[in-house]
Give the backbone structure.
Amino acid sequence: MPLPSPASPVAGRMAWRRFAICTATVMMCVICYGDRAALSVALPDIVHDFGLSASQAGWVLSSFLWSYFFLNLPSAIVLDRLGPRVVGILAVAIWSAAMVEGSLALSIPAFLLSRVVLGMGEAPTFALGAKVMRQWSSPDRCGLMMTVFTSGISIGLASGAIAAGYLVEQHGWRMAFRVLAAIGFVWCLAWFFLYPPQTEKCGSPQSVTRFSVRPFFASRSFWGVVIAQCCVNYANFLMMSWLPVILKQRMNLSVFDASCYTAYCYAGAVVISLVAGRIGEGLHVANAGAPGSRRRIVALCLAMVALIGFLPFCHSTALSMLCLVLSMGFVTAGSGANMALLADLLVGQEALGAANGLVLTFSNGMGILAPVVTGYILQFTGSFEYVFYMVAALVMAGAAAVMVLPRATITLHATTKG
């Protein structure tokens, strides 16, 4: 069947649908991370309500990752089976319901249970975003569109910090959770009407790929992507969990002021990540050759994340903010470029969702450690100084791994069943 001409009404409708779906996918990421930001902003009040220590607060911050870690791969395989429409609605509905459940919790076990349920809902989010962006964007813009999607992390954390900061101060953390949950339910309704039930892009239900981890585990390229993602995800989860507390401690701010400064950091990070993503994609297109050529862009982004190691030497607010914004911006750009690198290396795009889920299983396992380890370091030293040094060393190790390992394609020998 011939494709519609660019000037035809059909092409115009398809362009609108493509734009709307990609925008809604970014909004899903924004809502997801906005909900996570609410916990970080509300943490001082939650600690007070439940009488928690710094190390216990670290466990609370990591609690959603307990289920998130184990369900990344299974939920991504389900995504490849059922498609983005069904999985998107289920995922956002589950984590929004968990936000409501958390707002009603009267004990710390009940609150922790709500965070575990939230992790269940959020498990397929990143794999879903990677799959939709790969399918609904042009091949020469895959890396940029993945960076746009991952920029939803910073946008969500910024907007969530501002909204949660205001709501927590005015109405308490429980009301903040309920308002943010309502936004998620509205998104579910919009996605139901927007995303087509069956399209050629989602594949045929009569042909289902049997996913196997063996080709991935046997591939040096895969392990290069995994190591890089683990290192950058540690930095990501550190900021996502502790940034308002870091700013509050360093600058002696109120809860709302700390949330505002958090939003400033993430707003700046969005700009940095999009500029870096656009430049990186331009360099990749101009110099595309070997399957792993994008690894240089990933390594450069991770090296820039290591700027966080200079934060203890920044004694002015402006310099501290600049250091944080640059580091956080390249976290997003590096993560987006790394997942685009995985798509470049993968032969057999029908398993892309599961491949992303496998990478995220490892990287989120590393992410679980960030809030917990930070909590213990803070409890024993009273300072974030050694936390920053450790993160800088980690991301430099990730940059080295991604430069050395991803050289060949990842070929799947999967079978299909009709």
In short: The longest strand covers residues 208-209. Confidence is low (pLDDT under 50) at residues 1-10, 200-208, 414-418.
